[in-house]
Design a protein that fits this description.
The protein is mostly helical and 223 residues long. The protein has helices spanning 2-29, 32-41, 47-87, 90-104, 112-146, 149-157, 159-174, 176-192, 197-222. It has a domain at 2-148. 88% of the residues lie in helices and 0% in strands. It is globular and about 70 Å long.
Amino acid sequence: MELEKQYLQEWKKSCIKIGTPTNLLAAVTAFFPVLWLCISYDCWPAFGLVMKAWGMVALSFAAFYVVEPISYYAALGMSGTYLSFLSGNIGNMRVPCATLALDATDSQAGSLQAEVVSTMAICGSIFTNLFFTTLAALVGGVVVSVLPPFISVGLTKYAAAAIYGGTFGNLALKHPKTAVYSLAVVLIIKLVLGPPAWVLILLSVFGSILVSRFFFSREKKKA
């Protein structure tokens, strides 16, 4: 156990050493196309306009800056978190793949085995994603155009919801009490009080963490 903790600490140090500069580099280079356009065509936007656009984005997605890293960490692990935020498609691709891999291997969240398993699953999903995304870009439009309308509508509008539903159902079977809060209680709050979306996000994510912690502590005391 002590040896595993030592290896886990070394693993995390290596993840931070590689993952932090890599993600920061990706964040910086994301501005290169915009800078190239502005320099090439001399079309620099006013600073006030840039801040207004940033404010609109922040109002819509600021809650995710805090919620996603915390809520996804248990499934992704440290290396998986770096990989996922670098590659994207976290909720609809990386988390389901990592969660199912952990379930299939009976890996305990936070262990070295879980870190390795989730990393392998996420790497596999990234390569698969790149292949099929490239394939879809080349022939996807042609394929979708010949499909019946109900299939094309289902693929474009309900695919993400189906993935979330499948992931939730898989975890709900293992943690039904937490699932009741995550879905039923939050849904009731939505229908009765109608709070803003960011409030529901905070209630569902952090509330589920607290509920899970409560049941875990109670079961541990009984044991």
